[in-house]
Sequence to fold (488 residues):
Amino acid sequence: MTAVDARPESTAGARVESATDASAAPRPEAGTVLRFPAGFRWGTATAAYQIEGGATEDGRTPSIWDTFSRTPGKVRNGDTGDIAADHLHRMPEDVRLMKELGVTDYRFSVSWPRVQPTGRGPAVERGLDFYRRLVDELLGAGIRPVATLYHWDLPQELEDAGGWPERDTAHRFAEYAGLVAGALGDRVSTWTTLNEPWCGAFLGYGNGVHAPGRTSDLAALRAAHHFNLAHGGATRVLRDRLPSTAEISLTLNLHALRPLTDTPADRDAVRRIDAVANRIFLDPVFHGRLPEDLVADTAAVTDWSFVKAGDLEVTSTPIDSLGINYYSPSVVSAGSSESPSPWAGAEEHVAFTPAEGPRTAMDWPVDADGLYELLTRLRDELPGLPLLVTENGAAYDDYADPEGQVHDPERVAYLDAHLGAVHRAIEDGVDVRGYFLWSLLDNFEWAYGYSKRFGIVHVDFASQRRTPKDSARWYAEVIARGGVTAEG
Fold:
């Protein structure tokens, strides 16, 4: 799940026009089925620490999130992922739920400390065995497994040695990637190296709202580079260990940015955030360079001497597709942000204003046009690169009624609008190959603990009872007919 929750906000709302003026596009006639291309990948997604539980089983040792969640005041209600949705023990039931939905793909993450507890040395076979069983169960249900190697659960021992701000962590990650590829590479055809490295770098080391909770602009920038280096190094290892038909990808939570006004100052604010939120990953990964304006903006923080000769050749190792996680856009203006901030080099120049309109339980604006804007931007900037929407969804205050039903019409409306935006992007020439709904299950929602529910399957955390919500049935119908119905 993305990290817009860390965005500083002012007290005033703002009405800002979409960068593409999406309202001017012709709308299809009401009732028309907006069909997606043949072979479109209909998926759902989860993350290991958010659902697995079994925090001390099979040799697993603490990750940075185990440590962070036990630090007083860091996670709402003192919640931890020790049990979460107990997926470790209920995995066959969860796969059956996916089969009933009709999903073609399931995006899961591998827990690094379950597979390689110290972040060094050989794999723990008991840890790998869980993922072997999961993959076998998925394939038996006709569901394609999509493995993410890192979704924020760095082994604590590596953090104690310096964590992502240290170069060695990137090398350790590449070795870990090889271990997982060796175990699952004969059955998993789609691999994602990292999920949302922006969150890991700037929320984990910049403003400290995520694990490991450090607050340093320099540490955040160093971590961002080492995430890029880890991605490139792991990609090279995966190319060596996997069949030539394997698809290797990276997932970024790119920020859809809009200026509050059309003034030069507000547009420069957008440029600054685009550099530290988006181009800090896009440029090294796809162009083998650092953004010159980012280097200039952050000159008071670092001279970037931690980028060594040959690094950018590694970071730009070619990949087969790019995953995009999107939840809501950001409205940016000239100003200043609260400290500590995740916006290294931009804190004194940029402010954020919440957009008007409906909002989710996370207090995030609902605006599907932002997803369209990101997808079309990538079509133009990275022509020929296939895209996947690897996370998209919304939290609402769901509950089971006296009959045991969970009605979530707001989520259905959110998902419907965003799938409509994906369809419109495809019609406009964007090569979007799939959509992964976040999330299959209610889960441990990071610093929010169990207070926010993103799942299309309700989880009663006391009993671990699973109850498909109305949105689950809606999604199953969308998959069955291969598209959403236009409202006109």
